């Protein structure tokens, strides 16, 4: 049977809800024709459907299928995006995802999506200087930015601006055993993160209730009093939300730092979190919020107990490799990867 016939059978089986049968026919299709991108894409969708959480085997096979698609057709934006999502969201392969998106930029040098994704990954790992460089290249290279991307870029810009205002030594670096952030994590290790809504209820709602009770005596009855009371409540809510947001970041900073350490372990494949923290309530809370494939892969890393070596180096991609594809660089020496040594 031809590859196309297997592919049509796979479509029919999927429409009938026979997903295992559909996957089998899709695999037979790519076996008969390894360059059948539609069949490969069906395999991706069946193994890692949107809104579902595949296990580590399914996510890994879906990523392989995405890789097959872009090897055949580098213009398949859907495969680039799906593969990047699987790497970061499902498997925690942040470092590999940096290289993935650089390959995407090599294939589409004028696309803004790879730069935004790289900026997000670097920011999540606490590499703010590199993230600022990536975000700056959006404007230096005059890339087309869609309206749907503006909110995300604005959020990234705000985050990186806040990091620039802080002392670089104070920024948490999971690869440094003696960093002060570990002390704060240990102090909060047995407490779950505090929700922003809870903080708002505790800090702002009492003031709102007091304003409602005293507004009549302050502003009187009638429309004038109603308008003044409403304005006072609105101002209080705005100020309260701003204060709560800052308090939320401060109170939960140990949780955010531990989350970064978890992401770093998944990215590097090395163990950096002490055992007394790993068994605590805060760690278990953050661990449980990750999808099954991420948890399974992280467990394998922990079981291997492969400690971070003193000479460990972050394997960064060549962020200027896309210039070669555009013909701007003829000969250039490869830059040495950025290194971070344990203090």
Protein described:
The protein has 343 residues and is an all-alpha fold. It has 2 domains: 3-172, Serine Threonine Protein Phosphatase 5, Tetratricopeptide repeat (Alpha Horseshoe); 181-304, no CATH class. It is 68% helix and 0% strand. The chain is built from 18 helices and no strands. Helix 2 packs antiparallel against helix 3 (37-47) and helix 7 (113-124) packs antiparallel against helix 8. The longest helix is centred in the C-terminal third of the chain and has 30 residues, at 222-251. Mean pLDDT is 87; it is low at 329-343.
- What sequence of helices (H) and strands (E) makes up the elements? HHHHHHHHHHHHHHHHHH
User: Average pLDDT, to the nearest integer?
Assistant: 87
Net shape: globular
Question: Might you state the CATH topology name of the largest domain?
Answer: Serine Threonine Protein Phosphatase 5, Tetratricopeptide repeat
CATH architecture of the largest domain: Alpha Horseshoe
| Oligomeric nature of the chains | single chain
Strand content: under 5%
Given helix and strand content, the structural type is: mainly alpha
- Looking at CATH, the homologous superfamily of the largest domain is Tetratricopeptide repeat domain
């Amino acid at each position: 049977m031809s590859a196309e016939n297997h592919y049509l059978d796979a479509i029919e089986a999927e429409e009938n809800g026979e997903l295992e049968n559909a996957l089998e026919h899709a695999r037979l299709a790519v076996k008969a024709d390894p360059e059948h991108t539609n069949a490969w894409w069906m395999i991706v969708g069946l193994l890692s459907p949107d809104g579902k959480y595949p296990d580590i085997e399914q996510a890994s096979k879906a990523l392989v299928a995405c890789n097959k698609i872009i090897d055949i057709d580098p213009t398949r934006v859907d495969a680039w995006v799906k593969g990047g999502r699987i790497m970061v969201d499902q498997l925690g392969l942040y470092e590999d995802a940096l290289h993935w998106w650089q390959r995407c930029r090599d294939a589409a040098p004028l696309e803004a999506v790879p730069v935004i994704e790289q900026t997000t990954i670097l920011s999540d790992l606490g590499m703010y200087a590199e993230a600022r460089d990536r975000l700056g290249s959006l404007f230096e290279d005059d890339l087309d930015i869609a309206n749907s991307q503006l909110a995300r870029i604005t959020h990234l810009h705000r985050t990186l601006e806040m990091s620039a205002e802080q002392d670089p030594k104070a920024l948490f670096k999971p690869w440094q055993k003696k960093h002060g952030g570990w002390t704060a994590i240990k102090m909060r290790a047995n407490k779950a993160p505090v929700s922003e809504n809870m903080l708002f209820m505790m800090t702002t709602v009492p003031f709102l209730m007091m304003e409602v009770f005293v507004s009549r005596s302050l502003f009187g009855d009638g429309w004038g009093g109603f308008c003044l009371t409403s304005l006072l409540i609105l101002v209080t809510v705005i100020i309260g939300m701003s204060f709560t947001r800052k308090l939320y970041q401060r109170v939960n900073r140990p949780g955010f730092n531990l989350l970064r350490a978890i992401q770093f372990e998944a990215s590097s494949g090395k163990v950096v979190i002490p055992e007394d923290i790993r068994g605590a309530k805060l760690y278990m809370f953050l661990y449980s919020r990750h999808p099954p494939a991420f948890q399974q892969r992280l467990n394998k890393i922990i079981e291997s107990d492969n400690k971070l070596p003193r000479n460990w180096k972050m394997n960064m991609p060549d962020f200027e490799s896309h210039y070669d594809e555009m013909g701007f660089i003829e000969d250039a020496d490869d830059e040495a990867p950025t290194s971070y040594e344990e203090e």
